[in-house]
């Protein structure tokens, strides 16, 4: 079957940190595309993230963005799940503190909830679900990263919960990793790697 030609990819996010991760990871995987994001489409308004799972939210965003733009679209929903909190903050990761989107406050709330928990009870994971949408395909790609919630913020790199997400094998939080290190192991890297393989099989660039 002849491969379709893909020139432009719409990454349906307003998060600059997330957008830069997408660009860096795709480039490292030899996917060379013209990338646009929500900031490049002045009349586009993202939908309400009303799903109960990462997949449902990613699907809502991908379908909405593609219907508006008619440009091949990738959307993600990602977040943090803490075992002893029954998976919270989960899909509420961005809005954990009073629906505010303030990650300093989100982290403060999470650390307060865990203040009496010993290290071994603080197991957690980052999860990422991507949905790719165009006129032919609607595909899903997932990734996860296992770790623990540290007792305080460490490191200035990354974004979101990175400064408190501890990786025992590195003896560092994700916030202490250089971006090149993070982008080889992260939940988003794993999902984007699967997406990149799909692109290489089905498209030319």
Question: Quick check: average pLDDT?
Answer: 95
Overall helicity: 25-40%
Number of helices: 5
Shape: globular
- Provide the CATH architecture: Alpha-Beta Complex
What is the class in the CATH system?
Alpha Beta
Structural class: alpha/beta
In words, what does this structure look like?
The protein is α/β, with parallel strands linked by helices. It has a single domain (4-204), classed as Maf protein, CATH 3.90.950. Helix content is 29%, strand content 24%. It contains five helices and nine strands. The chain has helices at 16-28, 54-69, 103-113, 179-182, 187-202; strands at residues 4-5, 8-11, 34-37, 73-82, 123-133, 138-149, 165-167, 172-173, 203-204. The strands form two sheets. The protein has a seven-stranded mixed β-sheet with strand order 3-2-4-5-6-7-8. A two-stranded parallel ribbon has the order 1-9. Strand 2 (8-11), helix 1 and strand 3 (34-37) form a beta-alpha-beta unit. The two termini are 16 Å apart. The model has no long low-confidence stretch (mean pLDDT 95).
Nutshell version of this structure?
This protein has 205 residues and is α/β, with parallel strands linked by helices. It is built from five helices and nine strands, in the order ββαβαβαββββααβ.
Give the key terms.
single chain; 205 residues; alpha/beta; Maf protein; seven-stranded mixed sheet; two-stranded parallel ribbon; 9 strands; globular
List the helices and strands and how they pair.
Blueprint: E1 4-5, E2 8-11, H1 16-28, E3 34-37, H2 54-69, E4 73-82, H3 103-113, E5 123-133, E6 138-149, E7 165-167, E8 172-173, H4 179-182, H5 187-202, E9 203-204
Parallel strand pairs: 1-9, 2-3, 2-4
Antiparallel strand pairs: 4-5, 5-6, 6-7, 7-8
């Amino acid at each position: 079957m002849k491969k379709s030609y893909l020139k432009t990819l719409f990454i349906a996010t307003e998060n600059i940190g997330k957008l830069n991760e997408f660009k860096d990871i795709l480039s490292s995987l030899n996917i060379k595309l013209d990338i646009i994001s929500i900031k490049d489409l002045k009349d586009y308004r993202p939908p309400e993230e009303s799903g109960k799972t990462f997949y449902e939210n990613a699907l809502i965003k991908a379908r909405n963005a593609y219907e508006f733009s008619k440009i091949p679209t990738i959307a993600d929903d990602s977040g943090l799940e803490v075992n002893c909190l029954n998976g919270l903050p989960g899909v509420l990761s961005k809005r954990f503190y009073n629906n505010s989107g303030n990650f300093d406050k989100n982290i403060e709330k999470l650390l307060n909830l865990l203040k009496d928990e010993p290290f071994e009870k603080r197991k957690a994971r980052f999860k990422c679900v991507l949905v790719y949408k165009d006129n032919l395909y609607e595909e899903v790609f997932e990734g996860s990263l296992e770790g623990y919630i540290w007792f305080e913020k460490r490191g200035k790199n990354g974004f979101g919960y990175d400064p408190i997400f501890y990786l025992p094998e590195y003896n560092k939080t994700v916030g202490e990793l250089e971006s090149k290190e993070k982008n080889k192991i992260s939940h988003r890297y794993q999902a984007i790697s699967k997406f990149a393989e799909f692109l290489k099989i089905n498209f030319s660039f």
